[in-house]
Design a protein that fits this description.
4 copies of one chain form a homotetramer. Chain A is built from 5 helices and no strands. Chain A has 109 residues and is mainly alpha-helical. Chains A, B, C, D: Pfam families: Csp.
Chain lengths: 109, 109, 109, 109
């Protein structure tokens, strides 16, 4: 079944979506928001595409590989930005993004 | 933290989204698709609002209660339709929908 | 036809979604991002629910009124925040939000 | 400004999203739903990615080209399925899909 076949990737996407949204929320509450502007932007980009792909995989989309390939690119970019910042939420988000980027790349291959 | 505060509801929403999307996909492959038309329609409605609310809670939305209240209505309607059909995917989807409706109602209260 | 029946509201939602996303993007590039944090947060909330409702109306959702009612609340809140700021993108966004809130409220009634 | 820069593509995406959702709704009400199953599936796929890209362009996403390229693939597939069916909603949807596929391809290039 589609949702079982893709279950592991769906879980990784879900965790990345949650980490990015938490980082988005936390960045908006930081003292120095200006420094976090690019992080805020990419957190939203990454959360949105992970959220989209979660659902697309769960409905057995015929476009899984192409979507996963774009998602890997977005996760990679978000992880690269997040890892520049020392906040725990950024470091955790970077970890989730890199894990998701790798899972998406493997899946798309 | 928002994503921890809401973690249990996010999980229930995620399971309901997955069950609805699986049911959507499976209904489209049934012999008698016509009989499943309302189920297909409501599976999409329910999957979409659960998917939306998952992400909204993860980013600590200020509109959590109002969104959960609408989500409960949609889950209830989808569960009522799904439970009319004997297919395993419909019965499982109904169960996930009713669990999610109840969790959303409690949350919104 | 559903998409014609709802065509006017879909258009208003689309314009509000575009204004909120433009404001989100522009706020992240402002000198004083910290002052715009709540605006950035609400721009995303409002863009997301307008985008969701656009599509839900286009597919003839059975939950149009309930969704429009929540959408009105979100648009109102975003408009209230945006109108506090002098930037053109905030003032234009506030206008789009209030127009959309009113259209959603009328529709839901 | 981003939303002006991308305004034409956003409009084409919006029209394709509306046509796909109308076709989805209408297919579910056809006498012979089984024959429309693949059309229903692809209508949802196409509406969802167009809706996603509309919003991503409006917020000035850094991933516009990669997303437009995937979107072109989905629109093409949906158009190919829709044009097989004589219903007006399918023929109109096919036209919107092919127009959107072409606009996305040009944009991505």
């Amino acid at each position: 079944m589609s949702h079982e076949k893709h279950q592991q990737l769906i879980q990784v996407l879900h965790e990345c979506m949650a980490a990015c949204n938490h980082c988005f929320d936390a960045c908006l509450q930081e003292e120095n928001v200006k420094m976090m502007a690019e992080c805020i932007r990419l957190d939203r980009e990454c959360a949105d595409i992970c959220n989209f792909l979660e659902q697309a995989l769960a409905r057995n989309t015929p476009f899984a590989a192409a979507l996963a390939s774009v998602c890997a690119t977005v996760c990679e970019a978000c992880g690269n930005e997040c890892q520049k910042h020392d906040h725990d939420h950024c470091q955790e988000c970077a970890k989730a993004c890199f894990a998701c980027a790798e899972a998406c790349r493997k899946f798309a291959a």
